[in-house]
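Module 6 notes. Inverse folding takes a fixed backbone as the condition and produces residue identities as the prediction. Think of it as a translation problem where the source language is geometry and the target language is the twenty amino acids. Below is one complete input and output pair. Work through it position by position during the lab.
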């Protein structure tokens, strides 16, 4: 999720998030946070607020504000928003909504403690199988944020990205705009903007990108997907001969085509753009080199640079 604000206001909100999140000294201690892929194909970690029972939270690279669910906040002793709370406008796929702001004294995940966080209290009803809590990756301090999907570990440390010489790695520069991480991506040789989103279980392109790249609509797979998503004909499946991300390419990739409100809010409805979710990101160990604005993608040595990922009826495929 991303906050829908004027850029200067949104950047100020991100700065406030980091200000209220004192970074622990990690030079001598490597921070390690185990995670799981749940039944909804979301990347979740266990968080503890004070002495309350642990809850599941999605680690989201597109979120700019922590969002504990009302149940988690209440069990952790977080003060209720009150009658006239300060509100923050949070943008989701289908629109924006105001959430009350609360203050969380401490959140623990793995061996990391985050203190004095301002958070948007998510009072929506729980969805079975989905995490009610969201934690932005920006709230986790350190030079290197590493997501190892084979070991199911997030590591945070200072210095340079660590990797074995036998691994197959590639680097891609990224830019951060309005709290979102953008990379260049090419489909059938046509360039577009990709938003890195670990909060999404599936990748998708907007109609502008699908048309520019002359992607072919897969009618049978589109019908299967529409059946799984309530018959929405605006969501379909299209095939790409080749999708290139940095030094890697995906041959014969199937992607969802959709135009959620997210693209319109970011002024990308008419521009070639896509969201890169866990169905592709989880094929790699992903390292965000924050001082240099570079993302390092690493495949184990036995794997090939050409990776084929096909869309099944559920809309994602995570190893």
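Target side of the pair, the amino acids:
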């Amino acid at each position: 999720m991303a906050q829908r604000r004027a850029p200067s206001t949104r950047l100020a909100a991100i700065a406030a998030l980091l200000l209220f999140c004192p970074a622990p000294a990690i030079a001598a201690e490597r921070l390690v946070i185990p995670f799981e892929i749940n039944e909804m194909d979301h990347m979740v970690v266990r968080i503890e607020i004070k002495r309350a029972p642990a809850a599941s939270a999605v680690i989201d690279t597109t979120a700019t504000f922590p969002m504990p669910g009302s149940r988690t906040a209440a069990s952790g002793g977080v003060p209720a928003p009150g009658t006239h709370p300060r509100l923050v406008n949070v943008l989701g796929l289908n629109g924006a909504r105001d959430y009350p702001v609360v203050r969380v004294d401490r959140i623990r995940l793995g061996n990391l403690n985050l203190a004095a966080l301002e958070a948007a209290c998510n009072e929506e009803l729980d969805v079975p199988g989905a995490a009610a809590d969201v934690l932005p990756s920006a709230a986790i301090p350190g030079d290197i944020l590493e997501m190892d999907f084979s070991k199911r570990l997030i590591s945070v440390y200072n210095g340079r990205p660590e990797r074995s010489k036998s691994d197959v790695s590639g680097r891609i520069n990224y830019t951060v705009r309005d709290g979102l991480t953008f990379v260049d991506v090419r489909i059938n040789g046509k360039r577009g903007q990709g938003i890195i989103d670990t909060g999404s279980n599936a990748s998708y392109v907007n109609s502008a990108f699908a048309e520019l790249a002359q992607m072919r609509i897969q009618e049978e797979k589109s019908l299967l997907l529409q059946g799984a998503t309530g018959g929405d004909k605006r969501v379909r499946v299209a095939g790409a001969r080749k999708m290139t991300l940095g030094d890697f390419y995906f041959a014969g990739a199937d992607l969802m085509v959709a135009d959620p409100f997210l693209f319109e809010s970011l002024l990308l409805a008419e521009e070639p753009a896509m969201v890169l979710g866990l169905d592709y990101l989880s094929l790699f160990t992903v390292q965000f080199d924050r001082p240099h604005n570079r993302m390092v993608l690493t495949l184990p040595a036995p794997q090939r640079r050409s990776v084929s990922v096909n869309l099944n009826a559920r809309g994602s495929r995570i190893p």
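Reference fact for the lab report: Helices lie at 7-19, 70-75, 207-212, 219-228, 261-265, 278-281.
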